[in-house]
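Lab meeting, item 3. Inverse folding demo.
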């Protein structure tokens, strides 16, 4: 599996060092697209680590003898027991404070892989994001529409109570997008060219601040950043990293980027881009592991009043919140997903738990 983990002297003299060996350009390219460009990497290892432990990471490129050093933080532990299910023990590491020069070098290596193994025609999109405007203007042109308000709050915002929402569980709120005059200074293109996570990473690393406007069918979202932090994300009634996680499920649609953002759009609490991207990807992964066949966004749930009287006090906080919300009339799955600040995967898990205990059931009428 082209994994290599070993203990080496860390830069600080104390931190553990993990080495990930890449034996070919193609393997590195795939890992860059899936994980490295999103601010993290998984490294197989049987050593013991602690959550949030700081480690040194070295990406070893076998074909060139180059070693790229990075610093990271352990954000997930996979124990040796995972062998029983065919997995490899190891750690997921989120990169921290990646120097600009190292980040640019990783992009250069990934672009070299694309050029060497799949030579581009002159008309193909350029994937190297430095400088951002020159590179991404070569992306395929499209008819992306920009919102009248730069943060998108006046465009089909379904924040009113009782607004119907359709769509997949990962993007429970569907927001109609109005037609607008296109910004002549914007960078536009299809989301599928790079993927949502790569777009956010690329633009945030090449511009100090900016706003991504996103359209996918009748859904409309926005992502804003400033000084390396996520300061705005919105999709329907969802906001923050929760909205970002839903947007990361998009494989199609169009984007528009402008290198500025209205201060009125920014959120009170800024989140570092790497952390926001990693959390969004984690939530998307958690969602993919759940069986959601019974939890369509249009389905409604009802309380089992008889069982409610026999309920003990050991319910989780989120489960109590869901029960209170349903009792208040918020019984539609899509509305619960949008109303509660918790991530979608957490809400679905809480719903499953309530149904298993007989406190909640799907209304079949």
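The presenter then showed the designed sequence:
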């Amino acid at each position: 599996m082209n994994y290599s983990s070993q203990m080496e002297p860390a830069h600080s003299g104390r931190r553990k060092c993990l080495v990930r060996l890449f034996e070919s350009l193609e393997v590195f390219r795939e890992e860059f697209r899936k994980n490295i460009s999103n601010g993290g990497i998984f490294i197989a290892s049987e050593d013991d680590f602690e959550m949030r432990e700081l480690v040194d990471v070295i990406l070893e490129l076998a074909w060139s003898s180059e070693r790229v050093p990075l610093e990271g933080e352990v954000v997930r532990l996979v124990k040796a027991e995972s062998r029983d299910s065919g997995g490899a023990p190891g750690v997921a590491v989120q990169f921290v404070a990646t120097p600009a020069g190292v980040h640019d070098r990783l992009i250069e290596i990934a672009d070299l892989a694309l050029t060497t193994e799949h030579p581009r025609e002159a008309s193909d999109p350029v994937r190297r994001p430095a400088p951002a405007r020159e590179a991404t203007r070569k992306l395929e042109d499209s008819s992306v529409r920009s919102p009248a308000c730069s943060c998108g709050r006046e465009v089909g915002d379904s924040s009113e109570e009782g607004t119907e929402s359709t769509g997949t569980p990962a993007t429970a709120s569907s927001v109609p997008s109005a037609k607008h005059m296109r910004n002549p200074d914007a960078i536009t293109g299809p989301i599928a060219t790079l993927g949502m996570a790569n777009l956010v990473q690329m633009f945030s690393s090449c511009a100090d601040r900016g706003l991504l406007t996103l359209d996918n069918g009748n859904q409309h979202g926005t992502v804003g950043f400033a000084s390396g932090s996520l300061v705005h994300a919105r999709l329907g009634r969802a906001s923050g990293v929760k909205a970002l996680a839903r947007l990361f499920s998009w494989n199609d649609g169009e984007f528009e980027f402008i290198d500025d953002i209205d201060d009125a759009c920014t959120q009170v609490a800024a989140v570092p881009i790497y952390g926001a991207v990693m959390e969004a990807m984690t939530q998307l992964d958690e969602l993919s592991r759940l069986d959601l066949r019974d939890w369509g966004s249009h389905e409604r749930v009802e309380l089992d009043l008889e069982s409610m009287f026999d309920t003990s006090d050991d319910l989780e906080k989120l489960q109590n919140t869901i029960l209170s919300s349903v009792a208040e009339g918020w019984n539609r799955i899509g509305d619960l997903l949008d109303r509660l600040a918790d991530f979608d995967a957490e809400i679905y898990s809480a719903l499953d738990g309530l149904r298993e205990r007989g406190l909640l059931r799907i209304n079949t009428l």
